[in-house]
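Page 47, continued from p. 46.
Same chain as before, 184 aa.
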Amino acid sequence: MNIREQIAAYAPCNEQEARDKTVILDFLAKNGDAFLRENPLAHMTASAWVVNRERTKVLMVYHRLYDSWSWTGGHADGEEDLLAVALREVREETGVRHVVPASEEICSLEILTVDGHEKRGAYVPSHLHLNVTYLLEADERDALCVCEAENSGVRWFLLDEALKASTEPWFVERIYKKLNEKLR
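Result:
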């Protein structure tokens, strides 16, 4: 199945996911450039909730742009294999090498707001990330490495500690709690 089919087949777990799924599918149907960040209104991204093999800890990065502990993720940049994007971003942002999908199925869907900001000296207007999240497992014995361009810290947290570490209330309430509940 391609990503559009995967999103269409995904069974939302709550109203937020159901509504966001509808918007994402509509946007994909109407925008041929949905996988490119050059679309100034919205574009596809992939994120990962990276857990250890025992599923007792989650790997997070201290994101420079959001000034908060957060999950890993990034832009599709033309790639429609969003699982591959999520895996690539984990490796780039954390240094972890031994990371695999816990499942190749979508773990959650969400539309994320991104406030206008500066990136590499240029202003990036406010826009939306049409995001697909995957559950990944990593070896917590792997060496961690900060990606200076993106974050200033990489760390494993116990699942409930991760919720307290993040300073983004919407993410904690709408996404991170939901992802932790899916683990239980």
